[in-house]
Amino acid sequence: NAGVTQTPKFRVLKTGQSMTLLCAQDMNHEYMYWYRQDPGMGLRLIHYSVGEGTTAKGEVPDGYNVSRLKKQNFLLGLESAAPSQTSVYFCASSYSITGTVKYEQYFGPGTRLTVT
Amino acid sequence: RKEVEQDPGPFNVPEGATVAFNCTYSNSASQSFFWYRQDCRKEPKLLMSVYSSGNEDGRFTAQLNRASQYISLLIRDSKLSDSATYLCVVSRYGQNFVFGPGTRLSVLP
Q1: How far apart are CA B75 and CA B90, in angstroms?
Q2: Which of residues 37-76 of A touch B (CB under 8 A)?
Q3: A80-116 per-position pLDDT tens digit
């Protein structure tokens, strides 16, 4: 049981290049999330998904796109990378306990992205 | 005003000390509350969930005050291994988790 995995772990891009970050979870969780974390700031939600085939915008969605074609995978795309997108990106998944408001998130190890 | 606020610290305490962190949130519709621990350059890991007025897990006690909209985390008998950043997180409907900026704790020998 690997939990939440992220690919790649590190990447350096030049301004204007594109890339896709892959998040995979093997816990059969319904919900998946992409966050970015910058120095001195908390995690900020980029996009999230409440189920296969559905996505929604979070707090800082501009410059990113996402897709959830399979329940276990959540992809984050940067179409034209900018230096402001230099950050650590974390993926997370969560489940809910039926009949309660109990949701707990589990995080992947992160992707460190530098855009020059 | 940020939706979730924490004192960034750092809190520098000796081993064996008791330390408490507070977190305030602004959205009264928040339903779920959590404390996460994050070690340097690593992913956040769930420390405790707080679903009612509070709960205890070993040396850690979390309390929730809905009327005043704050959550607290108490760590007793601090260990060197407790040194980390502690993130306060609130959620509505499980679809939107909002993270505080974190409180940094250093436990000194």
Answers
A1: 20
A2: 40-45, 48, 50, 56, 58
A3: 999 999 999 999 998 876 666 567 789 999 999 999 9
